[in-house]
Amino acid sequence: MTHPSKRISGLLGGGSDGWGVFNRARRMIADGIDVTELTIGEHDIRTAAPILQDMHRAAMAGHTGYAAVPGTNALRDTVAARVAARTGVPTTRDNVMITPGGQSALFAAHAAACDPGDIALYLDPYYATYPGTLRGVSAEPVCIRTRADDAFQPRAADIAAKANGARSLLINSPNNPTGVVYSRTTLEGIAAVCRDHDLWLISDEVYDTQVWEGEHISPRTLPGMAERTLVVGSMSKSHAMTGSRCGWIVGPEAVIADLINLATHTTYGVPGFIQDAAVFALDQGEALEDEIAAPFRRRRALAQKVLAGQNAISLVPAQGAMYLMLDVRSTGLSGEAFADALLDAHHIAVMPGESFGTAAAGHLRVAMTIEDTAFEAALQTLVRFAEEKAGAQ
């Protein structure tokens, strides 16, 4: 009897994929139950009509055949100019490869950094696909816990303690799931570890337009890091183009050349009409990006108002991205138990912190992805539910 490869059958490492509460909520919806979903990072607005119109124009103009595997020159140039303007690091199209979304870029970046069996480091809490992505390139995932007491800012010493023999480190700021933006001090510490231990740094920066406090610093800007950093970007979060599957990797020219060979043998590029629409969207500048980000900025303020004056829930500093990380340990429940009970009692679905590793146990990730009034009402219900549970202790 034939069997799938260990690489494929072992993607989840023998554990859960962390989506149990989400899947149960979706089954309830399928059964006709009204559920308020605060689970996944999907905008409640759709891709802006002018972007879709430009996509249609490009398709009708005939850009529907094979597109250049590295990406069209127009999009690579546009991404390079955007990166150079935001970071000050000289960047050309030869530093850019277009990918079918950020997830594809994460996989390709690790394929470039790691050989089979190499240790690939990542931080806990983590976006749910990270460990499986590392296993998918036959790397050995090694997790480094961050601490709730540090607001989930990674400690350089903790990374260094596991860096001997490692090949890469994956970071994400602004961070999903915590909403934390890594400080300059944090990133300088991470960069020092990468230089000292000769690590590739893979920096997932898909939320770079959603910063509410502090500043987004791309580690590629730090001394000695441009030659060892692969930056992952995407149109999904910044331009509400999640379904268009258009992302990129920015890195050293030689690595990008090798990644183009990988794309030739795997994805074979991104449809040209989607790339044309991405150029159009990026050409709208920060005004459009601010418009896409505005609902999450508003809802963060609403959340801060709802959470003020109560003691059952504490809010991890919500500095960026479209999520809140709520500490519900005062209730005596795990994040998973709280999320299950909330779904049963009030038909509100949130993601347990345990879905993203062990460091955020006793926390919830709440996506700010429904209309303002409904979002505020759901949070008020969540707070009352937490107060009831905490009072029962």
From TrEMBL:
Pfam family membership, one: Aminotran_1_2
A GO molecular-function descriptor: pyridoxal phosphate binding
Record field: catalytic activity: L-aspartate + 2-oxoglutarate = oxaloacetate + L-glutamate
The enzyme's E.C. designation: 2.6.1.1
Alphabetical UniProt keywords: Aminotransferase, Pyridoxal phosphate, Transferase
GO biological process terms, semicolon-separated: amino acid metabolic process
Top-tier EC class: transferase
Regions that span the bilayer: none
UniProt keyword Ribosomal protein, yes or no: no
SUPFAM superfamilies the record matches: PLP-dependent transferases
Limits of the Aminotransferase class I/classII large domain: 35-381
Requisite cofactors: pyridoxal 5'-phosphate
Family listed: Belongs to the class-I pyridoxal-phosphate-dependent aminotransferase family.
Protein name: aspartate transaminase
Organism: Sulfitobacter aestuariivivens
